[in-house]
Amino acid sequence: xxxxxxxxxxxIVASLLAGCASLTTLFEPIRDEPAAEAVDETAPQGPPEADxxxxxxxxxxxxxxxxxxxxxxxxxxDARVAGAVxxxxxxxxxxxxxxxxxxxxxxxxxFDAQVSASRDRAxxxxxxxxxxxxxxxxxxxxxxxxxxxxxxxxxxxxxxARRTMAMVEDRxxxxxxxxxxxxxxxxxxxxxxxxxxxxxxxxxxxxxTSATVDVARHSVALTLVAESGPLFRIGHVSIExxxxxxxxxxxxxxxxxxxxxxxxxxxxxxxxxxxxxxxxEAASVxxxxxxxxxxxxTVLVKVKEHRLQQATLGxxxxxxxGPRMTLDHMHRxxxxxxxxxxxRLELGGAKNAWxxxxxxxxxxxxxxxxxxxxxxxxxxNDELRTSxxxxxxxxxxxxxxxxxxxIAVQGAKVESAAPTTSAWAATLNYNAVLRRIDSIALPTRGxxxxxxxxxxxxxxxxxxxxxxxxxLGRATAYRPLSERLFMQGYVELGQxxxxxxxxxxxxxxxxxxGIDSVRGYDYRSLGPVVNGxxxxxxxxxxxxxxxxxxxxxxxxxxxxxxxxDAGNAANQWSDLKPVFGVGPGIRWRSPVGALRVDLxxxxxDRRWRLEVSLGIAx
Length: 618
Known about the structure:
Elements: H1 3-18, E1 54-58, H2 63-70, H3 72-79, H4 87-107, E2 114-119, E3 126-132, E4 138-147, H5 149-155, H6 159-170, H7 182-198, E5 205-214, E6 219-227, E7 234-240, H8 248-251, H9 264-276, E8 280-287, E9 297-305, E10 309-318, E11 322-331, E12 339-348, E13 351-360, E14 367-380, E15 383-397, E16 401-415, E17 421-437, E18 446-459, E19 466-480, E20 486-497, E21 529-530, E22 533-534, E23 539-552, E24 555-570, E25 579-590, E26 593-602, E27 607-615
Parallel strand pairs: 1-3, 4-6, 7-9
Antiparallel strand pairs: 2-3, 5-6, 8-9, 10-11, 11-12, 12-13, 13-14, 14-15, 15-16, 16-17, 17-18, 18-19, 19-20, 20-23, 21-22, 23-24, 24-25, 25-26, 26-27
Helix pairs in contact: 1-4, 5-6
C-alpha cells in the first residue's frame, strides 16, 4: 500500500472519529439540525493508571473549554488505561486533531481556524495542539417569511396577524451583528417557533431554515420560512378533578372570552390564578391541539383540590419579635357555603395575636368579598401595645394589579414610660398595587407601585376626637446591571393628616426599623422620642438600594448581596433625620420567594444585627 493511500485512510478514519459535522461554507446553506452528542463507547474503559501521553491545548476561551471536553485527544487521555493508546493510535489521533478542532471551532462561529498538532519523542510524549481561530463570523442578515393562514390574514389587513408577525421578527434573538454559533442558531429557532406557537398558531413549524456562511467575509446570512398552520381560537372549557368546589370558582378566574385567539400567556395566567386561589393543590391549563377544531379548540383544566379543612402547627423565630408558635386552621367550605374561613393564632415572647377571616370563593373579574378581625398584644422595647381591628370589604387580584377597598374600625392602646395613649378610628380605605415585573416571586426587572389610603374619624381617644386621613406610598424598582449583577431599590413615604391635638390609633401611625425597613435597627425602634422612649410618628421615610448576584455558576440560586438602608419616623418633616444601615447578605432564590439572611450594621447605634426573612414581591 502506498504512502499516499495510507495517509488518505488515516485522514478518513480521523474525520469519522471527529464526530462533529461542520457547517457548510462558501455559500452552502445549512438545513440540518445538530444531532445530539453521542456517547463514545469506543473510548478505552478500565481501571485508571498512568497517563499514556501529556496534552497541551493552546486556544482562546471559550474554545479552550470546548476542546478540553470534546477533542478526542483530551477524552482518550482522560481514560488513562495502560496500553490502550498505542503509538500508532496516538499518531492517528494527532493526524485527525486538526480536522476535528476546525469542526468544533465552526460550531462556535469560527470558520477559518488554523490548527496544528504535534508531539515530541519523550517517554511520555507531549502532544501540543495550537489553534488560531481567526475572526468570528457575525450575522450579516436575517430574512423572515411566512406561509399559510398567518400570511394570508396579514395580507388581508388583519391587525392580529400583522402584530404576530412583527412580534416574531422583533423578538428574534440572533440579530444582525451578533456572533454566530450553532447553539445560538438552534436556540433562536426553537425559541422563536415556541413563541409563534404560543401566540395562537399551535401547529406552526419551520418549513425551511438555512445559515449561509461567507468564509472570506466572516459572515452568516440567515433565512427562515415559517409555516403557520391555522389560528386556534378558544372554545369549550373541559374541567377534570372538581368534586368539592363549584365550577364557578374556576370560570370566574378567566381573563378571556370564548372565541378569542389562543395565547399561551392567557392559559398560563389562568393557571397561576387557580394555584393562588387556595382551593387547589395543583392546577394545569392546556389547549387540545386538533387541526379540525382550530376555530373552537378545547381548553382542558385539570385540578387537584385541597382538603376541605387544614390545620398547621408551626414553630419559628423572627429577628423582629423573637420565637413563636403558630396554629393555623382553614375551612374551605363551611356549612356548604362558598367561602373560606381562616384562623391564625400566634403565641410568642414578644407578640401574641389572633386573626380571623371569611373570604368568598372567586367571583367574576377576580373579586372576592371579605370580613376579617384581629387582636394583637405586642410587648417590645419596654412598651406594651394592645390593638384590635374589624374589616368589611372586597379584594381584586390579578397578575399586574391588585386592590382592596374596605370599611375598618381599629384601635390601639400603648403603655410605656411616655404618656399612655389610646384611640379608636373608623375609616374608609383603598389600597392598590400596580406591578410591571418579570416574576411575582423572584423579580429582577421592572417596577412595583403600592399605595394605602384611609380617611375617617378618630374617637374614644386620650387626646381629642377628630377627622384624619392617611397616605402611604412605596415605589420599588428592579434592574439588571449585567448578566450577573442585579439592582433593586425602593422609596417609601407616609403621612397622617390630622390636627396636632387629635388622637390617632398607634396602628395608623409610623415607625421604622427591622427586616423590611431600616436593617440593623430593632423592629419599631425608630421614631420620635418622648421622655426617652421611642413613640410612633405621623411622618415616615424609608429607602433602600441593594446589589445582588449569583455567587457561583454551580449554585445559581445562591446569591450574595450588599445593601444600604435609610429612614426614620417623626411628627414633623423638619424633625425627620434618616439613620443608615449597611451590610452584606445571602439570598436563596427558592421557588416561593427569596430567603434573605443579612448581617446589618446600624451606623447610628454602632452595632451589628442579624436579619432573616422570606419574602415575595408585593
